[in-house]
Write a structure and sequence with these properties.
Elements: H1 3-18, H2 30-39, H3 44-58, H4 65-72, H5 78-87, H6 93-96, E1 99-101, E2 107-109
Helix pairs in contact: 1-3
């Protein structure tokens, strides 16, 4: 899958998660998982990674919003996203949203980037 295709997949996954009635509205996310495994032919492990990545990139409070831009620009790939998502539980909350100042100026929240990496 190309990086733009990965972004579109994760956007669709997030959309389906946010509107479970679209896929039958089964309790506990079973409809979403069934849609991903059977409809999109994804493995169980990949579905789990897709759900976590979609929440981190497109969820209501996206922890890795800057990764959308980086993935779209081809600076990172899906493997980078999966590693970053896997590391999120180990990062203290105080650091996830720490304001940092880049050399070029402009304060950014968390890992946001508007000029690249």
């Amino acid at each position: 899958m190309s990086d733009p295709q990965v972004l579109e997949l994760l956007r669709v996954v997030n959309e389906v998660v946010s509107r479970p009635a679209v896929v039958g509205g089964m309790p506990g996310g079973k409809g979403v998982k069934a849609f991903l495994t059977e409809g999109l032919r994804r493995s169980g492990g990949q579905v789990s990674r897709d759900l976590k990545a979609a929440a981190a990139l497109y969820g209501p409070d996206p922890a890795l919003l800057a990764m959308v831009e980086a993935l779209g620009a081809g600076v990172v790939n899906r493997d980078h996203v999966d590693v970053a998502v896997a590391m999120l539980p180990d990062i203290p909350v105080s650091l996830k949203w720490k304001v940092v100042t880049r050399v070029e100026g402009g304060a950014r929240r968390g890992c946001s980037s508007s000029t690249g990496w």
